[in-house]
Design brief:
- This protein is mainly beta and 206 residues long.
- Helix content is 6%, strand content 60%.
- It has 1 helix and 16 strands.
- The protein has a 16-stranded antiparallel sheet that branches.
- The longest helix is centred in the first third of the chain and has 13 residues.
- It is elongated and about 65 Å long.
- 29% of the residues are buried.
Length: 206
């Protein structure tokens, strides 16, 4: 009963912080102080924090900095961007609540159900202000009939566009497209190839 009461008090306190984005949390274990001057607050086991724009679940979540500006999550990390509807999972996450920048590391997977997009990579940066996700290293992106790979992919969620660079390739059935840069229109499924364009297209018999 005491820990539940403390959690409620702490959540209420967090809602009064100077950041516009309110924050609340729950966990099986907490270490730290409900003070905006506290160096660090640690949540462990079934840790969960929620702001007005972001939901994060993990085994361990650390809150640091003035007004709990910095959030670090590790261990089976998952969650959702409330504004864009983007679901994610990764090994480690770092969230700057002031700049609204989120950094993902290790086995990053994102899914945008509204646009039938899912992607994986080793690193990702997500800007919640612009709703742009930048995926890096071993990028794989799927959207309906398109299967894309590259070293770098910039997903502009609002514009419904993906720019792929770093030996990008898109496969559609038996058709293969390569270029220095490939732009995929998520809404129309059209692709734009730029620089050293090549491809293999299989024509159907009439």
């Amino acid at each position: 009963m005491k820990i539940h009461a403390f959690i409620l008090i702490f959540a209420f306190f967090c809602s009064a912080l100077c950041f516009c984005d309110k924050i609340s949390f729950s966990a099986d274990f907490m270490q730290g102080s409900a003070s905006e001057t506290s160096d660090k607050t640690v949540l462990e086991r079934h840790a969960h924090i929620r702001t007005e724009s972001f939901d994060i679940y993990a085994y361990r979540i650390e809150l640091e900095g003035t007004n709990y500006r910095y959030v670090t999550a590790t261990g089976s990390v998952s969650g959702k961007s409330i504004n864009s509807g983007l679901d994610f999972s990764c090994d480690k996450l770092f969230f700057d609540r002031k700049t609204n920048l989120v950094y993902f590391e290790g086995k990053v997977a994102v899914k945008d159900d509204a646009n039938n997009v899912d992607a994986t990579s080793q690193l990702m940066e997500y800007d919640m202000n612009t709703e742009i996700a930048t995926l890096q290293v071993n990028v794989k992106l799927n959207q309906n009939q398109s299967r894309g790979t590259s070293s770098l992919a910039v997903y502009k969620i609002k514009d419904k566009m993906v720019d792929m660079t770093g030996n990008p390739k898109i496969v559609r059935g038996e058709d293969i497209f390569r270029a220095q840069k490939i732009t995929l229109n998520i809404e129309t499924e059209e692709i734009l190839l730029d620089g050293k364009v090549s491809g293999n297209v299989t024509s159907e018999d009439n």
